[in-house]
Amino acid sequence: MRVVFFTNTPAHVHLYRHAVDRLERAGHDVLVLGRDYGCTVALLDRFDLPYRVYGACGTTKGSVFRNLPRHYANIVPAVRSFGPDVIFGVGAYAAHAGLASRTPAVLVLDSEPTSIDHAISRPFAAAFLTPHAFRKDLGENHYQFRGFCETAYLHPDVYQPNPEIRDELGLDADEPFVLLRFNAFGSHHDVGQSGFTPEQRRRLVETFAEHATVFVSDEGGTVDLDALPAREFDVHPALLHDALSAARLVVTDTQTVCTEAALLGTPVVRSNSFVGDGDMGNFTELERQGLVVNTADFDEVLSTGVGVLLDESIGVEWRRRRNEYVGGLVDLTGVIVACAEAGGPEGVPGLERWRAGTEESGPDRSAPVTEEST
Questions:
Q1: Which residue, 219, 241, 245, is CA-closest to 232?
Q2: Which residues on neighbouring strands pair with residue 178, listed in sequence order?
Q3: 174, 266, 353, 363: which has the highest count of C-beta atoms within 10 A?
Q4: Rounded to an integer, what is the distance from CA 358 to the centroid of its chain?
Q5: Number of domains in the chain
């Protein structure tokens, strides 16, 4: 079998990298088509994936649209020459590549607000796979799994924290640290959205630095750390999840890092303009499980964060809730591999037809994750 995966962002590399590895080990031919965006190529290299870069774009809102014609001009011949049996991706690139090559395209996605992408992908996608908390009906070919896109690489059957991450970060064994992750808001689904202002970013650093070492991961590269009591998160981006797992606190205006921290059991506060009525199902579900604080109130961001830093028992309880909850989620990598080998989602264990409101039901739990397995 021949399989194509699209990795347009760093998160997509993580979403599919274990599936690529398992399929290759099973003797299948795999091609990863990657976009030079952020640290995507660095991750493709780090994990030794069989990739080709189809194009690049920056973190500004207009960059992706300016580069679209060139991207498609490279994607279509690459896919046709490879001759895949199935294509996996997250949005329009994969769906349209399927159309051009007459190949079924399976899209794994989790963001309800990307309505334009859904509209231009839906007529050409063979199937959509979304988390159980996804609230938007994508039609008769919409399937759901009990988990999140991030359980493809953070499920306890797949991920084990790196015990040397503190050495990589230059930290003492018991030194508490905070990771602040700031979004560039440059993707097409970020148009009209916003996160922390420059002044709020400064206040976050100065407030938390009174209680812990502060690391800043700034996607847009606009924060002047020389004037702040913080350190740049400058280790290899592949170590981000290890840092999230070891942190005392994560505060972010991004989406993916929030979910990642939650699934690792680290207290996380998320604040951006998506928060509120109509927020994405992932984050309302994680908050319902006590694994995320979503708030648009900046004072609440500060007070919640300081409370976590002052009371170590909060983190212990947070990890307990995570262990109980994640034990009932699927290993999404296994689902993707089974879907690839079957040529589609029909009959694949762990998938069922989408139906609204399933995040409210209790999980069919396997054994809870233990502290020793995290």
A1: 219
A2: 214, 249
A3: 266
A4: 21
A5: 2
Q: In what order do the strands lie in the sheet with 352-353?
A: 51-56, 29-36, 2-7, 86-89, 105-108, 127-131, 142-145, 352-353
For residue 240, being part of any structural domain is answered with yes
Between CA 255 and CA 317 the distance in angstroms is 23
Please return the burial class of 122, using the count of CB atoms within 10 Å of its CB with bins 0-12, 13-18 and 19+. middle
Q: Specify the length of the chain in residues.
A: 374
User: Does one domain contain both 265 and 206?
Assistant: yes
Q: Are residues 130 and 84 in the same domain?
A: yes
Which residue type, as a one-letter code, is found at position 189?
Answer: H
Structure tokens at 25: 């080990």
Long-range pairs of 255-258 with CB within 8 A, sequence gap ≥ 24: 255/111, 255/183, 255/280, 255/282, 255/283, 256/11, 256/150, 257/181, 257/217, 258/283, 258/286, 258/292
Task: Output the six-digit token pair for 205.
Answer: 């650093």
Phi, psi of 45 (to 5 degrees): -70, -45
How do strand 86-89 and strand 177-182 relate by DSSP bridges? Answer: unpaired
- Tell whether 305 and 347 lie within a shared domain: no
β-strand pairing of 352-353 with 142-145: antiparallel
Q: What CATH number should be reported for the domain holding residue 72?
A: 3.40.50.2000
Q: Domain containing 315: what range?
A: 166-326
Query: Which residues in the chain land under pLDDT 70?
Result: 59, 61, 185-194, 359-374
Q: Measure the N-to-C terminal CA separation of the chain; round to a whole number of Å.
A: 34
**Residue 161 placed within a domain:** no
Report pLDDT digits (tens) over 322-359.
999 998 999 999 999 999 999 999 999 999 999 887 76
Angle made by CA atoms 279, 131, 180, in degrees to the nearest 5: 55
Separation CA 151–CA 65 (nearest Å): 30
Coil vs helix vs strand at 125: coil
Task: Supply the pTM of this predicted model.
Answer: 0.91
Give buried/exposed letters for 172-194 (b at 16+ CB in 10 A, else e): eeeebbbbbbbbbbbbebbeeee
Helices 332-342/10-25 angle, 10° precision: 60
